[in-house]
Amino acid sequence: MMPESTNVLDAMTAMRPARRGNKSQGMFLGILLVFFFVILLVALSSGVTVYRNVANTQANSVDAKLGLSLISNLVRSTDAADAVASADGPEGKALVLVERIDSGTYETRIYLYHGSIVQEYALANAAYTPEKATELLASSVFEFSYENGVLSITTDQGTSHVALRSEQGSA
Asked: Which bin fits 146, alpha (ψ -120 to 50), beta or left (φ > 0)?
């Protein structure tokens, strides 16, 4: 019986795969897995950084346009005959939006003051009080001109053109 059992053992040994390189294959797979995780983390981190930069750029762009749009909308809201005028502000020309109501004449004054464009609401012909004015946006430039029914307003953020429906004097 002995010879038969040796044949069975020999046959079983021959069927079993060789174990050579098994440790090195496991190590290679482990290193490969770690490498893929590192690449995945780098890609994820890069994606988050790019997304954050794009979102910040978009937010800054929206903020810049918001101030200029606010000024344009103020002009549109007071669009009436001779409602847009120009006056001397504390640091240059002031855009004056005139409202005539039963209780008197009021002015919304928009002008440059200490590196910001500010808005002040006051009785007509009252003295300018820039310390009480509301800051609209940061800008070192505030220029405007009126020509052929279009008021052009220029700030650091760009230029906005407002088409007025009503006839204006000299703005």
From this structure: beta
